[in-house]
Amino acid sequence: MTARSVDLARAQRLIAPLLGEPAWRVEQGYGSYVTMEFGPPLPPDTGGFVHGRWHLWIQMAAWRLETADRVIAGSEDQGLQQALSRLEGRPLTAVTIQPPSLAAVFDFDGLRLVTFPIYRSDPEDGEFDHWLLWLGNGEVLVAASDLTVEPSSADGTASPSGDALAEDLP
Fold first, then answer.
1. Residue 163: how many other CB atoms lie within 10 Å
2. Measured distance CA(105)–CA(103) in Å, rounded
3. Strand pairing of 23-28 and 71-74?
4. 16, 9, 5, 7: which is closest to 137 by C-alpha?
5. Which of 115, 121, 122, 162 is deepest in the core (most CB within 10 A)?
6. Is the pLDDT of residue 170 over 50?
């Protein structure tokens, strides 16, 4: 399977099974990258790392964590892991994708993680993935210059750890 573009309605249908799942292992990665797991844990990959059925990775995007009336933290603040820990155990209740930049709002029962792409992704000049969501079915929803669904491969290009995620989970 190759990458294929999806519209916002299709993206929402792909995301729907994830809604209601609590976030776990919410972590600040390199710089201000953010990763988190959802759903039942999968068997450890070859590096011993355990992912959830669904996995969100925010990269190449600024972000802020906020409530309806307060900004809690921004991607360049100090103490990001402490701020991100507020998402641990909170259910993901909505995802809003905003064209044309494909910025996204991940709502965790009133605590929102808002992304802002920091590069213009242009297929001719080089793509920058702003966020990626492993869908638990062997595919990844990728926000770059377009919304695409790509296969989760074992070569590290579309897998959070270099190992393919389970494709046949219940």
1. 19
2. 7
3. unpaired
4. 16
5. 115
6. no
Instruction: Copy the structure tokens of residue 38.
Output: 């959802």
Q: The pTM is what?
A: 0.83
For CA atoms 58, 59, 61, 66, give the dihedral sign. Answer: positive
Q: If you average pLDDT over residues 128-151, what whole number do you get?
A: 85
If one compares 126 and 85, the residue with the highest pLDDT of the two is 85
Question: Which of 103, 101, 114, 27 is CA-nearest to residue 71?
Answer: 114
Q: What length does the chain have?
A: 170
Structure tokens of 155? 């070569």
Is the Cβ–Cβ distance between 28 and 1 less than 8 Å?
no
Q: How far is CA 83 from CA 47, 67, 77, 159, in A?
A: 27, 12, 10, 26
Mean pLDDT across the chain, nearest whole number? 82
CB count, 10 Å around CB of 96?
A: 13
3-state secondary structure the chain: CCCEECCHHHHHHHHHHHCCCEEEEEEECCCCCEEEEEEEECCCCCCCCCCEEEEEEECCEEEEEECCCCEEEECCCCCHHHHHHHHCCCECCEEEEECCCCEEEEEECCEEEEEEECCCCECCCECCCCEEEECCCCEEEEECCCEEEEECCCCCCCCCCCCCCCCCCC
Residue listed under structure tokens 């929803």: 141
